[in-house]
Amino acid sequence: MSRFLLHRVTEQFDVIANFDPKLLPGDWCGAGCHTNFSTEAMRKPGGLKIIFEACEKLVKNHSQHLAYYDASEGKDNIKRLVGGMGAPSINECTYGVMSRSASIRIPLLVEKNGCGYLEDRRPAANCDPYLVTEVIIRTVCLNRKLSRDFVDEPLKKLQERIKQLEIENSELKDKATQNT
């Protein structure tokens, strides 16, 4: 609803709202849709244990979640989740208390109180927040597999080429050792 209202207001001023997670290239993190999530059990005493269990489930399903966390099935987040500058890396999912580099952050007050919520920092600004909520619930509460998986084809090809070059380099070293 808030996005709808934003678009209506911007029309009044002849401007356009854009939710691209990283509209301009450069050395900055981009725009995310950090999503706070909790269940009743997480908010009760001893809920911190449940929060950590939820984080483990989210870590195990990282690539599946990325496919739902932006409007381009993960491709927009490649520009934003660069690791460093306070942004988590797209290559791995981590969690931690008050960690600005973690994919999933647990606020300090939550740790202190032993209950509360977690903050998933991976969704991009152009995500569908209802879809993000759905996939978190499917993973954390329902223990269901998701139907999409994020695969960065250029990155995958680069990683395969690096492996190939490492093998070739190893073979060349072996030949050089044999010739000496």
Can you walk through the features of this model?
- This protein folds into 2 domains: 2-149, Glutamine synthetase/guanido kinase, catalytic domain (Creatine Kinase, Chain A, domain 2, 2-Layer Sandwich), CATH 3.30.590; 156-180.
- 46% of the residues lie in helices and 10% in strands.
- The chain has helices at 2-12, 40-43, 47-60, 62-66, 77-80, 108-113, 129-140, 153-179, and strands at 35-37, 82-84, 87-89, 95-97, 104-106, 118-120.
- A hairpin with a 2-residue loop joins strand 2 (82-84) and strand 3 (87-89).
- The longest helix is centred in the C-terminal third of the chain and has 27 residues, at 153-179.
- It starts with a helix and ends with a helix.
- The relative contact order is 0.17.
- The mean pLDDT is 89.
Can you summarize this structure?
Residues 1-180 form the GS catalytic domain. It is built from eight helices and six strands, in the order H-E-H-H-H-H-E-E-E-E-H-E-H-H. By secondary structure, the protein is α+β, with helices and mostly antiparallel strands.
